[in-house]
Design a protein that fits this description.
With 282 residues, the chain is an alpha/beta fold. It has one domain: Purple Acid Phosphatase, chain A, domain 2, CATH 3.60.21.10. The protein is 19% helix and 28% strand. The protein has helices spanning 2-20, 66-78, 105-108, 131-140, 175-178, 199-202, and strands at residues 32-40, 50-55, 83-86, 117-119, 143-145, 149-155, 158-164, 189-195, 209-213, 221-222, 226-227, 240-246, 249-255, 272-280. A six-stranded mixed β-sheet has the order 1-14-2-3-4-5. The chain is globular and about 45 Å long. The chain starts with a helix and ends with a strand.
C-alpha cells in the first residue's frame, strides 16, 4: 500500500512538474558553477596532472534539451580533459522522451577527452528496461559503459584502474565485480557509482576516488536548512567533496549536483555544476 501511495504521489508531482517546464525556461550557462579540485591520488608525480571532468544527472528530455547539451559540451571541451566521467541519469526517461534520443549521438560524439568518455548507469537509466537502446546510444557516441566492469588506462607512464558499477537501487551494482580486473590493490583506483551513499561500502575495497551524482545537491535548498528532499542512497553525501577512511585507507568521494532536474524543473540555492578534478601525487 505504501509503495502504491508513493508511486501515486510522485506521478502527480511529475505531471505538475511537466506543466511547469514552459514557465521555467533555463539558460544552460546561468546558475552554473565550474569547480576545480586537486587531489593527491596518483603514485607518481607528473608535470601535468590527470584532468577528469565530472558531470552527472542531465536528465535529457525533462527540462534539459539539445541546446543545453551543446553549450555544456563547449564548456567541458574548454577544460581540455583527459577523461570525462558521466555518473548516470543521462536521460530522464528513455521510454517517454518526446524527441528521438538517437539524435543526440552526433552531439555526444563531440565531447573531447584524450583518454575517453565513461558512463555508469543511474536509477533513471535502469528503471525503464531499455538497455539495448541505451547501449546503442552510448556505443555510437563513443562513450564507454562501465557496468560492473573496469579496465586499466595509462597516463604519462602510470597505470590507473578505472571502473564503474551498475545502478545500486534498480539494478545489480557490484563493486567486487567492477574491481575484478584490477591487477593489484595498490594501484590508483577510480570508480563511477551513481549513488553517493554507496561510498560507505566502496571505501572497504581500497578505492581512491568515487565519483557520484544522484542527489542533485538537493535541487531545492534553503539557507541553514539545506536540502528539502534527499533521495534514497543520496541523503548522507549530498554534494561536493568528502574524505572517507576505512582502517588506514583514505578514499575521496565527489558528488556532483548535476546539470539537469527531475520531477520539478526548479533549482533553488543549488547551482548546476561541472567539476574539473586534477589528479597527481601531491
Amino acid at each position: 500500500m505504501f509503495k502504491l501511495i508513493k508511486h501515486a504521489v510522485f506521478t502527480a508531482i511529475d505531471l505538475f512538474g511537466t506543466q511547469l517546464i514552459p514557465l521555467m525556461k533555463d539558460n544552460a550557462k546561468k546558475n552554473l558553477e565550474i569547480k576545480k579540485i586537486k587531489l593527491p591520488i596518483l603514485k607518481q608525480q607528473h608535470k601535468e596532472g590527470l584532468r577528469i571532468v565530472h558531470i552527472s544527472d542531465l536528465h535529457i528530455g525533462f527540462q534539459y534539451q539539445y541546446e543545453d547539451l551543446i553549450q555544456h559540451i563547449e564548456m567541458i571541451n574548454a577544460l581540455e580533459p583527459h577523461i570525462v566521467a558521466i555518473t548516470g541519469d543521462l536521460f530522464d526517461n528513455l521510454r517517454t522522451i518526446k524527441q528521438n534520443p538517437f539524435k543526440y549521438i552526433p552531439l555526444l560524439k563531440t565531447i573531447k577527452a584524450s583518454h575517453g568518455v565513461y558512463f555508469c548507469y543511474g536509477n533513471h537509466d535502469q528503471r525503464i528496461f531499455m538497455s539495448n537502446d541505451y547501449l546503442d546510444i552510448l556505443s555510437n557516441s563513443n562513450i564507454t559503459l562501465l557496468n560492473n566492469y573496469g579496465h586499466t588506462i595509462e597516463y604519462d607512464g602510470e597505470l590507473i584502474y578505472l571502473c564503474g558499477t551498475d545502478d545500486i537501487i534498480n539494478a545489480s551494482g557490484n563493486i567486487s565485480q567492477a574491481l575484478s580486473n584490477r591487477p593489484h590493490q595498490n594501484m590508483p583506483t577510480i570508480v563511477l557509482v551513481h549513488e553517493g551513499d554507496y561510498a560507505d561500502f566502496t571505501k572497504r575495497f581500497k578505492v581512491d576516488l568515487q565519483l557520484s551524482g544522484h542527489s542533485h545537491g538537493g535541487q531545492i535548498r534553503l539557507p541553514i536548512v539545506g536540502a528539502l528532499v534527499k533521495p534514497k542512497l543520496g541523503s548522507k553525501y549530498v554534494k561536493g567533496l568528502y574524505k572517507l577512511k576505512y582502517k588506514k585507507h583514505r578514499m575521496y568521494l565527489h558528488v556532483s549536483k548535476g546539470l539537469g532536474t527531475t520531477h520539478l524543473p526548479i533549482r533553488l540555492f543549488c547551482k548546476k555544476d561541472i567539476t574539473l578534478i586534477t589528479l597527481n601525487k601531491k
